[in-house]
Amino acid sequence: MALKKILIRKDDKVFADMIWNEVKIWKELGKHPNIVELYDFCTVEEDGGKYVIVLMEICEDGHLLDLLERHSGKLSENAII
């Protein structure tokens, strides 16, 4: 499993709404072979800020940036699948 911590700034309602919409849609999609599975999410207040914490499936190949670097910035259709 992987945890992602996303800061929701008080002065950026557009970003906060976007994050909530994405997480809710992600949760509604359920388990799908082409989407990293979302196990759960919550909000916490810490160090004067509000965060969304996302618990999700971990990708075996690491970060997308690492994968792109290993393939010189281009992924074949098979690599994408």
Describe this structure in words.
The protein is α+β, with helices and mostly antiparallel strands. The chain has three helices and three strands; from the N terminus they run E-H-E-E-H-H. The protein has a three-stranded antiparallel sheet with strand order 1-3-2, with helices on one face. The longest helix has 17 residues. It is globular and about 40 Å long. The model has no long low-confidence stretch (mean pLDDT 86).
Comma- or semicolon-separated keywords:
alpha+beta; three-stranded antiparallel beta sheet; 3 helices; 81 residues
Shape: globular
Order of helices and strands: EHEEHH
What is the average of the pLDDT values? 86
Number of alpha- plus pi-helical segments: 3
Radius of gyration: 15 Å
User: Describe the biggest sheet?
Assistant: 3 strands, antiparallel
Stretches where pLDDT is under 50 for at least 5 consecutive residues are none
Strand order of the largest sheet: 1-3-2
State which percent range the strand residues make up.
25-35%
Fraction in helix: 25-40%
Total number of beta strands? 3
**Structural class assignment:** alpha+beta
The termini sit apart by 21 Å
